[in-house]
């Protein structure tokens, strides 16, 4: 097999279907950013260590830098661009704004996707649980306290859709 042979891959991103010819080693992150031009998903470490690239795949949070694009043929992917409902921000987005949960904003798309996935997992009961389950998403600006405050508010029902 030719090493640079491409594979036709169909990705459904934020409700739109994209048919891409991908070489097998292209990460989902690069496919999103470079082929589909959705650059809201950030590339931090590109090695699974920072969480900046987190997206939702079939509702579950996934590190897109560690995921091969071709493996997600047919999957339903949600990026930060697809989190809001039209003009209406997602409750997690609203809570991030209210709690000053970002400074430079670089980690924020990944934090928000990760938080939504984490809440859906339903495992976090306490603030410490949230901290632990969000520990894969690093923030170099030290906005962690606001991030956890924001997530706690949504979890406790302070925000409704
Ligand atoms: S860019 Fe994927 S975890 Fe850092
Ligand atoms: S807001 Fe700057 S890295 Fe988190």
Automatic annotation (TrEMBL):
Superkingdom, taxonomy of origin: Bacteria
Keyword Oxidoreductase: yes
Metal-binding as UniProt keyword: yes
Protein name: (2Fe-2S)-binding protein
Lineage: Bacteria, Pseudomonadati, Bacteroidota, Flavobacteriia, Flavobacteriales
Keywords: Iron, Metal-binding, Oxidoreductase
InterPro entries linked: 2Fe-2S-bd, 2Fe-2S-bd_dom_sf, 2Fe-2S_ferredoxin-like_sf, 2Fe-2S_ferredoxin-type, 2Fe2S_fd_BS, Aldehyde_Oxdr_Iron-Sulfur, Beta-grasp_dom_sf
Originating species: Flavobacterium qiangtangense
One Pfam family named in its UniProt record: Fer2
UniProt cross-references to Gene3D superfamilies, sorted A to Z: 3.10.20.30, [2Fe-2S]-binding domain
Domain 2Fe-2S ferredoxin-type: 7-83
């Amino acid at each position: 097999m030719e090493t640079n042979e491409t594979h036709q891959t169909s990705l459904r991103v934020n409700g739109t279907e994209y048919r891409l010819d991908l070489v097998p080693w292209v990460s989902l992150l690069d496919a999103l950013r470079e082929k589909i031009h959705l650059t809201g998903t950030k590339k931090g470490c590109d090695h699974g260590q920072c969480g900046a690239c987190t997206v939702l795949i079939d509702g579950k949070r996934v590190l897109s830098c560690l995921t091969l694009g071709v493996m997600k043929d047919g999957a339903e992917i949600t990026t930060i661009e697809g989190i809001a409902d039209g003009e209406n921000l997602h409750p997690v987005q609203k809570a991030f704004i209210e709690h000053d949960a970002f400074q430079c904003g670089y980690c924020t798309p990944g934090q928000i996707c990760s938080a939504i996935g984490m809440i859906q997992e339903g495992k976090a009961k306490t603030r410490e649980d949230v901290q632990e389950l969000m520990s894969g998403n690093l923030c170099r600006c030290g906005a962690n306290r606001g991030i956890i405050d924001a997530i706690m508010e949504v979890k406790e029902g302070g925000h409704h859709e």
